[in-house]
Design goal:
alpha+beta, Diaminopimelate Epimerase, Chain A, domain 1, 18-stranded mixed sheet, 16% helix, 40% strand, globular
Length: 272
Amino acid sequence: MTHRLPFVKMHGAGNDFIMIDAADLVPGEPLDRDRIAALCDRRRGVGADGLIVVGPATGADFGMAYYNSDGGEAAMCGNGARCAFAFARDRGLIDREGTCATASGPLRGRCEGDGLVSVDLTPPRGLALGIAAAGDHPFGELHRADTGVPHLVVPVDDVDAVDVPLWGAALRRDAAFAPAGTNVNFVAPAGDAWRLRTYERGVEAETLACGTGASATALVLWKLGRAASPVVLLTRGGDRLTIAVTPDGASAKLRLNGPAVTAYRGEVDGDV
């Protein structure tokens, strides 16, 4: 007999996730790649950009394992981590703040109130300004940073003029970023803020928001001298993500702040 699996559907600025408490997993009924992909399917499953399992962890208040909608595990997800802190608070694993173990390193987060959650990301790596792609593209500049997962940052004049499915997919699979590939962020000025559109690796589509992508973009804009901290990014879903950038030797510390919302709770049959 296959058991029903309780879940909570959450989103961080429209970046949506199936949240599962590790205590609800039944031994002998693996949450494998195929089942995760089926659960994240927007027509035949619950539908989500990813799935997150929250449970006990050594050396932290709790841990999170993050899986993209294709079922593959990824090291980190910024908006997912913010949702994980809200979920952990709901489960009594933390009060207002605490620590979370992830595959990319430990995170500290805080539930700020008014539905906002902040997360201190792991130190960024691999910042490279003015890089080249292997294939042809119409963009004037490309930059790169790893904020838990790899991101390409592409400044443009108008994000609405960018064919994100076309150029996001092309740059995500460009030979210069093989074999792992990269997430791709297109960013344009919008008054005192910046508009952002992201093509996510593993989802293989544009998402309404991406926390690590917003953080990588903020870091690049700050490093280029085009934006001062805190950097405000306006997501495709219409929400605001705010990234505080603090100098830290040759690198920087990043704090990601934005909404983490519970949409609904439910159960799925074991066949899904």
